[in-house]
Amino acid sequence: MFFFAPKPKSSLQSSVYDHSPPTIFFPRQGSFLGRLRHFVDIIDPSTLLVSEERLQECIKLLDDFKHHRLPPGVSDQQLWEAQKVKQAIIHPDTGEKIFMPFRMSGMTSNEDLPPKRGLFYHNACVNYANRNATKPTPTAKFLQGYVGAVTSAVSIAVGLNVLIQKANKLSPSTRMIIQRLVPFPAVACANICNVGLMRHSELTEGVDVLDGDGNVVGSSKIAAKHAIMETAFTRVVLPMPIFVLPPILMSYLEKMRFLQNHRRLRLPIHSLVCLATFSLSLPLAISLFPQMSQIEASHLEPEIAMATDCRVLTYNKGL
After folding, report:
1. Which of 35, 209, 271, 277 is the most buried (most CB within 10 A)?
2. Residue 288's beta-bridge partner residues?
3. Are the C-beta atoms of residues 84 and 78 closer than 8 Å to each other?
């Protein structure tokens, strides 16, 4: 599931029993390909249809496996499938279900297309639902971040529309440059603001960092800064393929006689192309960094570095 080579029958058993929390149910994410295989499972839309009964069965199966209480006859494939379901639905910090529309598997196909106001509301909720949640977020701070994230994103979107409208009065070459080059940095800036404002409480409260045994060593603002920066970078990379591939593909498709004779099909075909592109770009972008990131203790606050003998600590970067 997370590796290209076929897994031996004992592969999951080895990966779980040989590691302590918090990586106990996180596959090895040391390589980009390993993370890619992992996140392809996490964003599988079929997990949106998992029933509560099925989810509880998966959680119990993994808990039994963790405590060496597995009933006979459970296959390796059943364990991997249970792990996939749990990781797609349950937040790793709170242990609670992520609201279905705001899971990574629930991101809409046009999530990072040129700005539309409704998308920024959804983006803000996705960023919040998949944050590092080791510290509670007061309602006032959530609302403050939400209003700030949506306001900044919509402001950038409105400014982009005004700029494109004014570009119609410019020379053809200048207009083409603006229309082609401006949307991406505008969307990237909006995404950065969205992530930063929805998760700004992490910068003031810090996030929990864990030792090799899964024990909380302390709360680090430096780790929180790394987590938000890495997440924001993935949001910059995310729309890149969407701004590049669909125009190229549509330029070829529109030359086909079929589309020339059926012009009404251009919009649905363009939507399908964007859907396919987004389905490709989402796992690629979030695979740039492990969800459970590591940082050397010496790079954190002095009180945290002195509180543990572990050289490397772990924290949940969020998605």
Report:
1. 209
2. none
3. no
End-to-end C-alpha distance for the chain, whole angstroms? 20
Amino acid identity at 261: N
- State whether residue 314 is helix, strand or coil: strand
Residue in 318, 295, 319 with CA at minimum distance from that of residue 135: 318
Query: 203: exposed, middle or buried (C-beta count within 10 Å: 0-12, 13-18, 19+)?
Result: middle
DSSP string, 22-76: TGGGS---SSHHHHHHHHHHHT-GGGGG--HHHHHHHHHHHHHHHTT-PPTT--H
Give pLDDT tens digits for 115-173: 455 566 677 788 888 888 887 777 777 777 777 767 776 777 677 777 767 766 777 76
- Whether the link from the prior residue into 72 is cis, omega within 30° of 0, is no
Do residues 235 and 131 make contact, with C-beta atoms less than 8 angstroms apart?
Answer: no
Residues near 277 by beta carbon (within 8 Å), at least 6 away in sequence: 241, 242, 245, 246
Q: Whole-model pTM?
A: 0.74
Contacts 24+ apart (CB under 8 A), 114-121: 114/160, 114/183, 114/187, 115/153, 115/154, 115/156, 115/157, 115/160, 115/161, 115/183, 115/186, 115/187, 115/190, 116/157, 117/154, 117/157, 120/149, 120/150, 120/153, 120/154, 120/157, 120/190, 120/194, 121/150
Give the number of other CB atoms < 10 A from CB of residue 19.
16
Spatial separation of the C-alpha atoms in residues 147 and 159, rounded to whole Å: 18
Strand runs (DSSP E) across the chain, as ranges?
207-210, 216-220, 292-296, 312-316
Tokens at residue 303, please? 């009180």
CB distance 249 to 271 below 8 Å = no
